[in-house]
Amino acid sequence: MLLPAEFDFHALEVFVLTVELGGMTASAQQLRITQSAVSQTIARLEQGIGATLFDRTLRPLGLTPAGRALYERATHLLATARTMVDEVREGANQPIDKVTVAMAESLAILLTGPLLNRLGPRVARWRVRSGISLNQQQDFLARRVDLLITGSSVLEKQEGVVHHDVLDDPFVLVFPPSFRGAADPIAAAEGLPFVRYSLDTGMGQRIESQLTRMRLRLPNVIEVDIVPQQLNAVALGIGWSITSLLCLAAMPALIPDLRVEPLPRARFARRIQVVSRAGELGDLAAETAALAGETIRSESMPLVLAQLPWAADLLGSV
């Protein structure tokens, strides 16, 4: 049996993306084509298959039983096809065509150079993005990002997503150097405002979750969303905060201007992972995770431990 001419991988990609983004407008924006082109592609696919895929009376678009069946099979078929293309290109010593990798700003400072230096030849066109982790997760789900290097666990239960562990990044307390109080969040909160890391970030959410477990209700006086804002505010005596060793590694020259202390209780960490889609990009995600771990352990953390030798104990205790 010959497949219908309308049934091709491009049409399947358009269909799957329309389902995952919830509509033809969003799919067209992602594909950088007109909504009319998306609609026509799906109409031709329906004509070729002989079944209606979307219930167009619903808003947002809903799938018909035939549409649900096709979506389940098309996602697996497309993943297999992408893997095949990657493997054929590797076998012919050809790089992967394009990869977009996204990570938090502090991780981007530490890992962008080593990533491009060591793995650059594996990919013909790299796009490296840094920014708010929750936005990056949405971009990943919308296929605008191929690899995530993240400390957020939001995608851990997402079907079809693979997580490659890098390491655990312990959190620590940071105070102005002039602060002479006890190295304790409760004592600090009595004399200084808390510099809160934005809840739009995975790190901010992780810190806030721990504060809730510690039953600490801290007024939202100052909120920032990048590490330089956070650490500079503390160094200037504006407030105190909770940060991580990797954030300090991204700005090692600022450590002498801070009082950095371990949490006296309820110690916690974020797990840094490389997140990819199952069956795509060959072993690039695993290699990226291995490279990230090696770089952090051999190049980034020594800059912190040289100034905070006691922090070595945290790396093995969380």
UniProtKB/TrEMBL annotation:
<dbReference type="InterPro" id="IPR036390">
    <property type="entry name" value="WH_DNA-bd_sf"/>
</dbReference>
<keyword id="KW-0804">Transcription</keyword>
<dbReference type="InterPro" id="IPR036388">
    <property type="entry name" value="WH-like_DNA-bd_sf"/>
</dbReference>
<dbReference type="Pfam" id="PF03466">
    <property type="entry name" value="LysR_substrate"/>
</dbReference>
<dbReference type="Pfam" id="PF00126">
    <property type="entry name" value="HTH_1"/>
</dbReference>
<protein>
    <submittedName>
        <fullName>LysR family transcriptional regulator</fullName>
    </submittedName>
</protein>
<keyword id="KW-0805">Transcription regulation</keyword>
<comment type="similarity">
    <text>Belongs to the LysR transcriptional regulatory family.</text>
</comment>
<feature type="domain" description="HTH lysR-type">
    <location>
        <begin position="7"/>
        <end position="64"/>
    </location>
</feature>
<dbReference type="GO" id="GO:0000976">
    <property type="term" value="F:transcription cis-regulatory region binding"/>
</dbReference>
<dbReference type="InterPro" id="IPR005119">
    <property type="entry name" value="LysR_subst-bd"/>
</dbReference>
<dbReference type="InterPro" id="IPR000847">
    <property type="entry name" value="LysR_HTH_N"/>
</dbReference>
<dbReference type="GO" id="GO:0003700">
    <property type="term" value="F:DNA-binding transcription factor activity"/>
</dbReference>
<keyword id="KW-0238">DNA-binding</keyword>
